[in-house]
């Protein structure tokens, strides 16, 4: 079956389930707080609980691959199963693997996550453009072919990101702004929006000096454990808030293992996001 483009599928999911993205980040400290062992059995129980509790109501999930890779092939098997179950339940999966390499190796990463028949096929993948935006071309091309999307690291939520992303090129444009401009070009003319998103941290304060109007989604991590709140979104994103997919990982996960408590936490964040977004004129 051919998939509609990721941008269209994401817009529909945002309209029906709301824009919240719940991150699945099975930190060792969370496994312990949930009374689970820090091994593949603990990982599996944790992941299953999150999927069973939230897959039917949350629009987007972002499993963080590192927490699964740390257990080797059996950890990857847990990730594969989670991706399949989430997608089966009608949720979208953004694989957070932050891949980025020279073009020919990038093509292999793209095959891993963006080829329709791959065991780890995901609706979208986070990628790092810091080997040059053009090095991502194989992923852009395969995503287009498969109806998948990308989230390109543009302005990350961590304070260390600024030394690279705010560095200014000879033409006066910052590196982060350059990535946003590449994405705007990628998404030009697409309706309801393009499939090539930017990662822009919710922790960054006023970003009005950047053109966030890329006609594509803006994945916004940093809410909860990193200190940002849904109420910050309008001040950070302005009118572009309509395209924001706010990610919360630990802020939701710390409420487990009780399924009802996880659902309540996700619903609270979703309500706060809705309130913040609805309050923005023109959003
Ligand atoms: O690409 C990401 O998802 C990402 C980009 C970024 O700028 N900052 C950031 O925190 N992330 C990821 O978003 C998640 C944030 O987790 P919490 O801080 O627990 O909500 C982690 O999986 C990070 O790897």
TrEMBL record:
Keywords, comma-separated and alphabetical: Decarboxylase, Lyase, Pyrimidine biosynthesis
Residue intervals of the Orotidine 5'-phosphate decarboxylase domain: 19-265
GO molecular function, one term: orotidine-5'-phosphate decarboxylase activity
Catalytic activity: orotidine 5'-phosphate + H(+) = UMP + CO2
InterPro entries linked: Aldolase_TIM, OMPdecase_AS, OMPdecase_type-2, OMPdeCOase_dom, RibuloseP-bd_barrel
EC number: 4.1.1.23
Active site: 98 (proton donor)
Pathway participation: Pyrimidine metabolism; UMP biosynthesis via de novo pathway; UMP from orotate: step 2/2
Family assignment from sequence similarity: Belongs to the OMP decarboxylase family. Type 2 subfamily.
Name of this protein: Orotidine 5'-phosphate decarboxylase
Organism annotation: Streptomyces coeruleoprunus
